[in-house]
């Protein structure tokens, strides 16, 4: 998921423009030799079809379809698929999945704005076809109904008005005859029964008219009341509907956070506590670092969910690394919302953002590994590996020539250049046998030790026996030629003999004074020699 | 060996590539959870005690520091508020920092200076991105956004000027080439978060990753499906791993088990040294490029130790 580079840099095509220049010739040659078209830092494996098919199955799973694209990609990367394989799998999975996933992510992140509604409507029928997860579907339902709400409301108003009018008419037609008949009954009760209908009719006509008027007024008031009530109930419904929506949103958020915390708990049980602790610290840190700076991410609990997506591993979780007590105190303080009292307000901005950087006073020093540039990169592993098991002892001679050691003006070497006694023992004995002893007295141990011999490997034969099992993956990679190996082994046997002599002669006195003394001048000479050759390289 | 006491909890220590007695220490108040930070520059002295020659206060904790390879007085600091700050020791303290580059949206966790080109550096952040910067530009040159979680560490290849590796909490390590738009390799190195990575200085195809799963794995990028070596021995997450600048197969690491360990991955019994001097999480470790065998470490116990391999760091 390579997103394009930051647009603010303005140079997407040539990533490191003017600043590229200073490159030494040797480096350029080595780089050209090593990289060319076949950089070793590029994956040259062909696409594995079985992995792609597994990935397609994974991506087609309905649960997976409900997750954001980022998680799916990250999962596949963790499983060891290469970029090409992942891209191929995404290509093969049915086309509507990315759009639905984006829709769903849009829903999840935007929290149900009406904007994606237009996307949702055509998707809704397809959603019903596919087994969509319950939450987005319900969200869709609410969203669609929400979208329809306004026209729905208008329709409702119209319907209610019509029904109100209709009710009024019906009431008029129903109530009035009823009232009439009721009045007639009343009138009949009042007047004797022998009164002819005609006479009854006359007074009843007037009464009827009055009654009719009353009825009409009553009906009108009824209608008015009814329509008012309907209006009220409609507004109430609207309110209720809105409240319902907001409550559902809140519930959704709560459910989200609950599921996150559940996942977290699950993760804590299965996963090494270190990890959860690290994440916990970071999650807690993120929660304790609220809005002190512009933060593009508003939802950091989604981050905590992301961090625990690694599936439970075969590694058995160990106990939580014991945190210092004050750490726990501070964490609890922050979780309570308190701010630790010892924090000061500090302005750490540059006083002059355009301050020119001062010129360097020293030239860059060559690195210890750069001196051997000419030997090429891949051949180093065998030459420089030292098979000696030097637990507590110094490494045998001959890796890189030592970098420049300034000999101090004062007589004694600074303590950080001194090795401990045991270490110097081996070397001094070796050197003693190979160089004539001098006569200088030096009260201190020799300064930074310098490999006395260029040959890179000591006791490789002995080491070969030890590292036999490890060597096999290397053998394909090693570019040792037979001659090289023979040459080295010849040197190696010399070293072997020297070393055995050392062990036979026994150790030196603890202060190492005698042994340390004679070879100091020689090491100085060697130092200088090597320094000389160093700078030529 | 003298120790240096910092007022805040230590997070990183780096030797200067110019002065063999100089180190930079990144520290954060309150364990880096919430609080200020301070960047110390200290000098070793032959007489014994470590002297502080400069200290810079920051509003937020400093998680990492890197020395410039081109300017002997320049320091880059990774600050927990997402900024990357440049400090110049040749200028008076009131003129510092000389730059504050604020582009990351989350904490900046590491910075590394390019030792080949010597003009650029990368910063990695909890916002899942890595940014490429040069000293003369006020904005980043490139942003590399592919990781799915915090990028805890990024390290330049010691030989190839354009190649770097990154270690992330999404359990992958990636190899990038600044000339390519995206990562060139994805190493699913561990089942848990990867906290640190470093290149072998003598074999540029070998990379080591350290993880929350307490192990360090050494990989060959030419055959990255199977690790070259798996180094077990730490009791808790391994916070930082570093290849020796002098020995091809020597690795030094520090862990939440409060120890600093030295390994030789070419040997059957890889653990060749263990130092138990810290009393809290050991969080930062470095090996000097100028003095062979010189180690420095710092931790949440607010102490910085500098010692020669084979000696006792706590010895006076």
- Strand % of chain B is over 45%
The gross shape of chain B turns out to be globular
Summarize the amount of helix of chain B as a percent range. Answer: under 10%
Total DSSP E strands of chain B: 28
* Portion of residues within helices of chain A: 55-70%
**Oligomer, anyone?**
heterodimer
What does the radius of gyration of chain B come to?
18 Å
- Overall mean pLDDT of chain B: 94
| Class by alpha and beta content of chain A | mainly alpha
The average pLDDT value of chain A, as a whole number, equals: 62
InterPro entries (chain A): KPWE_PEX14_dom, PEX14, PEX14-like_M_plants, Pex14_N, WH-like_DNA-bd_sf
Biased composition (Polar residues) (chain A): 116-130, 279-295, 372-388
Region (Disordered) (chain A): 1-36, 92-135, 279-326, 341-391, 426-480, 501-537
Domain Peroxisome membrane anchor protein Pex14p N-terminal (chain A): 48-92
Structure characteristics:
heterodimer, A: 537 residues, mainly alpha, 18 helices, 0% strand, disordered N terminus, disordered C terminus, B: 316 residues, mainly beta, 4-stranded antiparallel β-sheet, globular, Pex14_N (chain A), peroxisome (chain A), protein transport (chain A)
Compile the SSE list and pairings.
The complex is a heterodimer of chains A (537) and B (316).
Chain A: H1 25-34, H2 49-60, H3 62-65, H4 69-78, H5 83-92, H6 96-110, H7 117-129, H8 134-190, H9 197-270, H10 273-288, H11 301-307, H12 325-335, H13 380-384, H14 421-434, H15 460-466, H16 468-477, H17 482-505, H18 513-536
Chain B: E1 3-5, E2 9-15, E3 22-28, E4 37-43, E5 51-58, E6 62-67, E7 74-79, E8 83-88, E9 99-102, E10 108-113, E11 120-125, E12 129-134, E13 142-145, E14 151-156, E15 163-168, E16 173-177, E17 183-187, E18 194-199, E19 206-211, E20 215-220, E21 229-232, E22 238-243, E23 250-255, E24 260-264, E25 271-275, E26 282-287, E27 294-299, E28 303-308
Antiparallel strand pairs in B: 1-28, 2-3, 3-4, 4-5, 6-7, 7-8, 8-9, 10-11, 11-12, 12-13, 14-15, 15-16, 16-17, 18-19, 19-20, 20-21, 22-23, 23-24, 24-25, 26-27, 27-28
